[in-house]
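User: Okay, second chain of the day. Same drill as before: sequence in, structure tokens out.
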Amino acid sequence: QVQLVESGGGLVQAGGSLRLSCAASGPTFNNYAVGWFRQAPGKERESIAAISRSGTTTNYADSVKGRFTISRDNAKNTVYLQMNSLKPEDTAVYYCAASRAANRDYAPVLSSQYYTWGQGTQVTVSS
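Assistant: Same drill. Structure tokens below.
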């Protein structure tokens, strides 16, 4: 079973950028679609981006579309989330998760479709 570790979080000023990484261990990483989620204090977990096994399909929440980019490097067993033009409302704990999607071009967006989660990384955007 794949295991996931997020990194790259931190404190950044509004308008700045961060790149999160989700490193996977275990065999056959390219059998998994990967999603990024976030949860702010007192709020429900939000799906923000997902990428298919093949990398050809990506989905974004409206709140991050045009600012965030998800990508994957299967040779490095890593999925990235490039976050630009960050806003204070982007402050949250960010999690990556893996879904064993049968369709290599399918990028799930529901948290219930993911069964392996990382421990999370904190992103704080100051105004």
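The mean pLDDT is 95.

User: Thanks, on to the next one.
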